């Protein structure tokens, strides 16, 4: 019999938590024949990335995954063979009791946040707390051997390369979103948290000799874009031109379409965790807006990734990437770091593809989770 899996997702940062768990749940069903229940406490956020979700339903099926609304009125449920608490969310106490009451205790995992910090590989797979004899384990996604890897569906990179090589497919996809960039423009995407440094970057793009068509999916950065443009409102479908810069607001799209959007662009600014990983699979230059944490501890996480990501770059290109990412994540002026990056564009572009291939040669997160369970039983 195939193993049953329960994945619990408490939506904290709008879409990152549900984005990761929804991709994982589907992959476990499609590629590993697992029976998966995905418990989500915010179906409205889920609906944004999966429009088929009925926010009124307590129980429904999507892509082979049983989606359950995780509400405060918890009803008694039997615990699964594998229980994943995504990003350290607290399971319902009654469910934890159900785990302890099983004849055979389940595998209980805390699927943690993605990090490139050195300590991750040392903590990955270690036991954590116990509840009535049920042992919880740490499970860390990561970029190096000894971690849980990254979410990557089977054949993803092949589909991406095929799409990027098919000019007509890219054009049809963009036209479906109402996007018709000029032939000589640099297509870029911007998905980020609020950032005071945005204005200086947009000024640089507007003054550049090469035109830029900037695609901005609706989200938290729109207020900063609107202020820089000096317009009263900025809604989905808005198209604004300032010198060499065209800004276009896109609707929030399902995950598969967001992947294709990243594949179409020559540069992607992303945020959080899910879009951060998907930008890496796009094989294009990127910029990560990391989620801010108290006492700036997120900057340690940023530095750890940059040390790994820039290792193979020449000194000049490495310095350019570091300066841009550090400026963006400290809300500093972006014009000079951006101009400097453009001086190393060919190398940075080639490096993005090479990094993607290197990461793609490692075991993916879903496969690593399944193997951990098989080893555990």
Automatic annotation (TrEMBL):
GO terms for molecular function: protein-arginine rhamnosyltransferase activity. It catalyses: dTDP-beta-L-rhamnose + L-arginyl-[protein] = N(omega)-(alpha-L-rhamnosyl)-L-arginyl-[protein] + dTDP + H(+). Transmembrane segments: none annotated. Keywords: Glycosyltransferase, Transferase. Protein-arginine rhamnosyltransferase that catalyzes the transfer of a single rhamnose to elongation factor P (EF-P) on 'Lys-32', a modification required for EF-P-dependent rescue of polyproline stalled ribosomes. Belongs to the glycosyltransferase 104 family. This is Protein-arginine rhamnosyltransferase. It comes from Pseudomonas saponiphila.
